[in-house]
Specification:
mainly alpha
């Protein structure tokens, strides 16, 4: 059942990412090709989306956890917002075919899309809190690969049909279907979800530069894809075999990385490796994109969805470390992505010629690449895991104890949460401190402690500490 929940949640996330990667309007309503590109409607759409999300965030702030929990668990809200989005998209397509699209409909569509996006974001964040951190890491990595595959299938199936113009909104709305199925099969799950972080390997301090780096990359790469005459009009699922090759290397590699960490009983994301890839991509695109336009375009198309996924993680982790509500992070991440799109299309309003626009885009990419380089140095100095630099001897000792604790947990059949509590108890944390670290109630920590004491055959913290120390001494003698 847990594997099925992971798959359904990954599918829901996969369709959710398309909200921020694909062109929002149906294909026959507002073309995105270079010849017919007009910045005004795109900027207005992004602005309406951003304002609507901000208003919904304000409503959530007023009503706090009660409203967020109700929306996240409401099948009516999830299905209703998805159906409303598809109905509005169908009306837009019909109006465009008739030759006239009302202005109010052009304005209502992005507002409905924002409403749908916030509802789905809340539902996804709430569902993720029921999984362990390492399961969440696997879900997010798997969602990228599934998103690409689902998009290719939808395009292949709908393009020959008269309904091909609505393929993008159709993928948006699929999230609601997967979440409804997930809710029905999860009726036997605990009603009070475990509020764990999505990426505990990233400290609260390191989340700030990580968020800044990813926003810079989305700005620079988005300017290239939206405004450059070389790349404008290209879409995620239809850029030829080079783009497919990049995607089918990058996304499986991401999955393998998180699976390897999962086997080591931890959650991890390839932060530094991806930052280096993004910086190199921007520098190469700015300096070499004329002779290597196809290669640069394909690499950016593949990497932008991964940047959005990691931005979601960084915002969740950073705000969680500051004890901010889970639902606030769920709304903040989409708002940041839409705000970047607004900034990009603001440049398009200037009305420059294609040659001038390409020069501006190059400058934007170079500046953002340099800013990302500085941010990466800041990120490395803070250390992603939040630990302070230690001597090699201390680091080796800490690694040995961690291995012993993991081995004890496996040998005695401890759950993942019990293993976390075991490590924190051994290191001298009080139950109150453990509750704060793991975002649990004190009573839950007490329950986990009693359970692991019983499984280990000890009756107190001191006996537990002695047991671990004896195992460590045994390892030292064996050496």
């Amino acid at each position: 059942m847990n594997k099925l929940r992971i798959l359904l949640l990954a599918l829901a996330y996969a369709c959710f990412w398309s909200l921020f990667v694909l062109f929002p309007y149906p294909a026959n309503v507002l073309p995105e090709s270079h010849a017919s590109y007009v910045a005004g409607p795109v900027f207005a759409s992004n602005l309406i989306t951003l304002v609507t999300m901000a208003l919904m965030g304000g409503v959530l702030v007023v009503f706090r956890d009660s409203l967020a929990e109700r929306v996240a668990g409401s099948t009516a809200a999830i299905v209703g917002s998805g159906a409303l989005l598809l109905a509005c998209a169908a009306a837009l397509v019909a109006s465009a075919d008739a030759g006239a699209v009302p202005r109010w409909m052009m304005a209502a569509y992005p507002a409905i899309m924002a409403l749908y996006g916030v509802v789905i974001a809340l539902a996804l964040a709430a569902a993720s809190r029921r999984l362990t951190p390492r399961d969440n890491a696997v879900v997010l990595a798997l969602s990228l690969l599934l998103s690409f595959l689902i998009g290719e299938v939808i395009v292949a199936l709908t393009d020959p049909l008269p309904t091909g113009d609505i393929s993008n909104p159709l993928m948006f709305a699929l999230s609601s279907i997967f979440l409804v199925i997930l809710g029905h099969i999860g009726c036997d799950a605990p009603k009070a979800p475990l509020p764990s972080r999505l990426a505990p390997s990233l400290s609260g301090r390191a989340a700030v530069p990580a968020t800044a780096i990813l926003l810079c990359y989305l700005l620079g790469s988005g300017a290239f894809m939206s405004l450059s005459s070389v790349a404008r009009g290209e879409t995620w699922f239809s850029d030829g075999w080079i783009h497919c090759a990049f995607a089918l290397v990058l996304y499986p590699a991401f999955c393998l990385f998180t699976l390897a960490a999962w086997r080591q009983r931890r959650a991890a994301f390839p932060w530094l490796g991806f930052f280096i890839l993004c910086i190199a991509c921007l520098y190469c695109t700015a300096l070499l994109y004329s002779p290597l336009a196809v290669l640069c375009r394909a690499l950016i198309l593949s990497s932008r969805p991964m940047a959005i996924t990691l931005l979601w993680v960084a915002v969740q982790e950073g705000m969680g470390a500051r004890d901010l509500p889970w639902w606030l992070a769920a709304v903040a991440a989409p708002m940041l992505i839409v705000a970047v799109d607004c900034a990009i299309h603001t440049v398009g309003l200037i009305g420059l010629s294609p040659g001038q626009m390409d020069s501006v885009v190059n400058a934007v990419m170079l500046v953002t690449a340099f800013a990302m380089t500085l941010g990466m140095l800041w990120f490395v100095r803070l250390r992603p895991d939040g630990a302070e630099p230690a001597s090699s001897e201390c680091a080796a000792g800490a690694a040995d104890v961690s291995e012993i604790l993991a081995a004890m947990a496996d040998a005695h059949g401890l759950s993942e949460r019990e293993g976390e509590v075991l490590g924190l108890l051994y290191r001298g944390n009080t139950q109150k401190k453990i509750a704060e670290r793991l975002f649990l109630s004190v009573s839950s920590v007490q329950t986990y402690a009693k359970s692991l004491y019983r499984k280990l055959g000890v009756h107190s913290r001191q006996e537990l500490i002695d047991m671990v120390n004896e195992a460590a001494n045994g390892n030292d003698r064996a050496r």
